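User: I'm curious whether this sequence folds into something compact or stays loose and floppy. Could you predict its structure so I can see for myself?
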Amino acid sequence: MRRIIGGAIAAGVAVFAGVGAMGDDTTRDDSGDIVESGGLGVYSFQIGDCIQFPVNDEQLVESVEGVPCSEPHDAQVYVEFDLEPGDFPGDDAIFEAAAARCYAEFDAAIGIPYDATPDLDFTVFTPVEEGWEAGDREVTCFVVRTDYAKWTGTALAADRG
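Assistant: Here's the prediction. I'll summarize afterward.
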């Protein structure tokens, strides 16, 4: 199954190094942190994972590159949740619901109110209609830089404490 980046739709599907949506080819330490880069399926994300977005500007993805947070990365997972069941509400409605929840969860996860972080923003991976019809309701929220530049380290309050 595929996920949409930031609610936008494109024609292709980005897959990192042949890793499917459920795969995890990263190496993790005992605490679950990524210590060696690898393909990471969209259904294998863990809170705190740092990733690289696809370089070909695809918006539909099955997998990305997971990297140690000590290396330059595009984004970090800060919350995952499921949307309410029901008929497919449309891409715009899904994105709006996802963005509202990602916004609401930002302060607790990052430890700084969203409106007080001029350098940080968030983006989301949301289900596409095909996935929705198969039962996918999962949303993944990522913290990103407002200029979308790569950064190192963690943005999560729990990891900085």
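Summary: The mean pLDDT is 86. Helices lie at 91-110, 129-133, 157-160.
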